[in-house]
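Sat 14:20. Reprocessing the chain from the morning session after the first attempt stalled halfway. Input below, unchanged.
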Amino acid sequence: MNPRPTYPYQRPGLVVLAALSSLTMMSCTANPLLQDAGRMGPSVLEQIPESRSITAVASDGSNLVGVLVAAPSQAPIVLHLLPSGASIETGISVGIGRTGLESCLRAHEQWGASSVVFDYRGIGSSEGRKDFDRFLEDGNAMWHEAVRLAGGREDQVIIRASSLGTLIAANLLDGGAKPAGVILFAPVRSSTIVRHAIASQRGSAWATLAAGFFRSPDAPDLDDIARKAQTPMLVLLPNEDEFLPADEAIAIAITSRAAGHEVVEIPGDHQTTVLRSWNFVIDADGRSGRRVSTLTDAELRFLNDLRPRLFESNEAKWPTENPTDQDPLPPAARR
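Finished this time. Tokens:
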């Protein structure tokens, strides 16, 4: 007689063992926050022929490949910190297909600022393999190269980050960086991003079990940084964000505003806000989108407020309004 088959529900220990095995396998894989950027897509160097390749050297000697889009001489520099899954060589995912970074970089150039943007290690042509433990180190190297390109003047560099890149921005400020300003699209918190990222893919119960198997970024939370930062900050928060629940978004908004920083709410969710930071707008039906040529009104207003300190030695008059079409987003509501 064949033995009766044993099903998982008959042996609870087997279910636990299977779960632990899955978690152990997860702990041996790459951190879920750093995603591949694909191998095909619009390249900045191809879309902007006058741009040029640059490198930043990480602490271990790895070369992080970036691109410089130069505005007229003596222009300030915007350091763009990419979200996960984006690259200077393949752009950023819009669901089906990818959109390039060119429109956003052109918009800053038209405003009067140069732009530098780098790929993290293991992404694009940057050396090494993806390593989230060195993610913040990559950001330090990018910052130092941006400052070098600005003639050694931190006050001529603007940090502009979205999603995962906002962790680097917070870490740089905590480390004493003194940029002219900081712009954050769809920020996340270092203490909760791993759990929220897993929950978005596998549910909250699984996230509670699995989050401990991955190291959280060793960076301060944004609300702590906003409380003490002397650098002007613009924080753009989506209406809904699976990576930053309402209670955390409210805490960031309250702390930031109390410290004198600007907080603006953008209609949409995390991904649509990240895409808007790169001049791609998802239409109201959520099924289609289009590339635009302008920065958000909130960002343009913030940049213009920085103008006196950025162009203190430059008599050139840069545009004070969007140079082309109007911002397609509804007027932003301040939190």
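Confidence is low (pLDDT under 50) at residues 1-30, 315-335.
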